[in-house]
Amino acid sequence: MPGIIDAVIGLQVGDEGKGAESHRRNADPRYAIAIRPTGGDNAGHTAYVDGKRFALRQIPTGILHGKTSVLGSAMCVNPLTLMEEIAMLEAGGFDTRSLLISDRASLLLPWHIAEDQLHEDMLGEARIGTTQRGIGPCYRDDCNRSGLRLSHFTLPWEECRTLIARKLDEAAGRIAKLYPSFAETRFRAKFHWGALERARERLAPVTIDLPEFIRKERSRGRGILIEGAQGAMLDLRYGTYPYVTSSHPGVLGCLEGTGIAPRDISNVIGVLKGYATRVGGGPFPSRMDPATEQLVQTLGREKGTTTGRDRHCGWLDFVQLQYAARLNGVTGIVVTKFDFLHKLSELKVCVGYRKGTELITHVPADLEGIEAVLADAPKWRQPIGEARCRADLPENCVRYLSTIERTLEIPIIGLSRGPNPDDTVAW
Ligand code: IMP
Ligand code: MG
């Protein structure tokens, strides 16, 4: 019997609490392997172990459970920050020997970061608000068929160095032409050759052929948890383009990043939080009024894990959630961060969009000029505190959650009311 394969994905714009959910799921012995399919260190997955906070960027939370933890094929791997992450985990007492990397993953190198930053500066007011981690330029090189992959990183160092040096020449020349402010000489002088060589020494031996690895592991009945990053609305194709990331955070990316066939995925777990947030630029029809937003930022600690930026906050957007759930074939929902909503003086949900006089009930390709149609949601005033099961929840809170289930036509399979793995409510 082949092992179970499940995927955890974000149904909003990232920061739904996927990290905590993946961390919780990894306690299940049916999963032997954790795979992060897409993205890079633009992500920040927060997980608590014995009350201690760990912010993972590229490594799946499976590592916290000693599971085989794989950086998947559709990732752009920054070897330098990956080394920092490994060091951070080891300092925390975790064994990182179970870390593996797909040889098809893209290699993110320092010029990608420079290009991301320069491009954002050039856009000025029209900037995407990227995390400035080089993600877009790295994927751009992939699409241009000119990028380096982890397979190149495993070549003997002299050969690898020659390849990187050639790409560095191309990139530095290109950037200097495009951006007069680029200090080419300094960039070259500061290039991290030593650190790259050390990273290669650590990472090359753990770089694997992922489809072949998965074939073997599945034949031994080992189960897999795919730990998605970012959220459905940041999808390059189906998200709020151009205010998106450059990968596919939903199931599309789970397939691309693992090489697993669609029919082999048993459950797609969609994580959403009890309200909406967005970090960076882009349309946000259900955004709250400034006073409520500020309150939610404080109560929900809505600051970016990776960039430290304040996240914009909004009401739960049912139009967007239905779209994301449908596109990703979500089989079960996990709701996070609904535990402080009783402190708000009002609670609203977005039930439709308006463009001028036109009512819209789907997510259009361009959200420019779209306004939210808001409805009042049932309010509750009692704190959820130590609620353990549905019966412990205030009646209107149950109603709020039931509306999510009914609207998406997908069962809730998990409720999280705090950052620790056992802060859950049985539904
Ligand atoms: P990039 O992925 O750095 O290119 O950024 C593109 C957009 O995606 C920006 O709006 C970022 O704020 C957003 N983004 C990227 N990664 C995350 C994440 O992990 N959580 C939330 N937003 C993200
Ligand atoms: Mg995050």
Explain what the structure shows.
- The structure is a single chain.
- The protein has 427 residues and is of the alpha/beta class.
- Helices cover 33% and strands 22% of the residues.
- It is built from 13 helices and 19 strands.
- It has helices spanning 18-25, 79-91, 110-123, 135-143, 150-153, 157-178, 184-189, 193-203, 210-219, 251-258, 290-299, 318-327, 395-408, and strands spanning 5-10, 31-39, 45-49, 52-56, 68-77, 99-102, 106-107, 207-208, 223-231, 267-273, 276-278, 312-314, 316-317, 332-336, 348-355, 358-360, 371-376, 412-416, 424-425.
- The strands form four sheets. Strands 1, 2, 5, 6, 7, 8, 9, 10, 14, 18 and 19 form an eleven-stranded mixed β-sheet that branches. Strands 13, 15, 16 and 17 form a four-stranded mixed β-sheet that branches.
- A hairpin with a 2-residue loop joins strand 15 and strand 16.
- Helix 3 (110-123) packs across helix 4.
- The longest helix is centred in the middle third of the chain and has 22 residues, at 157-178.
- The radius of gyration is 22 Å and the shape is globular.
- The model has no long low-confidence stretch (mean pLDDT 96).
- Bound molecules: inosinic acid (IMP) and magnesium ion.
- The site of inosinic acid has 20 residues, from helix 4 and strand 9.
